[in-house]
Amino acid sequence: MDIGITRLSSKGQIVIPAFMRRGFPEGTQLLIVREGDRFIVKPLDELEPELKEDILFAERTERALQEFKEGKFVKKDHADFVRDLESW
User: Fold this and answer.
1) What pLDDT score does 6 carry?
2) Strand locations in 23-83 (E)
3) Domain that includes residue 39, residue range
4) What is the CATH number of the domain that holds 39?
5) CB–CB of 60/53 below 8 Å?
6) Whole-model pTM above 0.70?
7) Which residues, 6+ apart, have CB-to-CB distance to 56 below 8 Å?
8) 34 and 51: one domain?
9) How confident is the model over 65-81, as pLDDT tens digits?
10) CA end-to-end span of the chain, whole Å?
11) Three-point CA angle 56, 80, 74, nearest 5°
């Protein structure tokens, strides 16, 4: 088991210590799960394909809900809406 200490920035960012990042290419997507005071970090590509797709869908849904709450949604006609869905 490897142990490292990091700090939460004022922007809510954390840095994973370099020795723990070895072997992960830049741009690797990480799944982060919070359970109380614990955080679990796992490379997204290590998940089963169905679970990975479900998690990505949930993330897009949460982001869309937040944008809706912030008034960032725009009205689209049916064809544009379907085209945008297909591009996801």
Assistant:
1) 92
2) 30-35, 38-43
3) 1-46
4) 2.10.260
5) no
6) no
7) 44
8) no
9) 898 899 888 788 889 88
10) 37
11) 80
Q: What is the pLDDT of residues 4-26, one digit of tens each?
A: 999 999 999 999 999 999 999 99
Asked if 64 and 35 sit in the same domain, the reply is no
Dihedrals φ, ψ of 3, to 5°?
-130, 135
Report residue 42 as tokens: 């796992």
Q: Provide the residue count of the chain.
A: 88
pLDDT tens for 35-58 read: 899 998 889 888 888 888 888 888
Mark whether 76 and 36 lie in a shared domain: no
Count up the domains in the chain and report the number: 2
Which residue type, as a one-letter code, is found at position 68? F
Q: Which two tokens stand for residue 28?
A: 């690797």
Helix, coil or strand: residue 10: coil
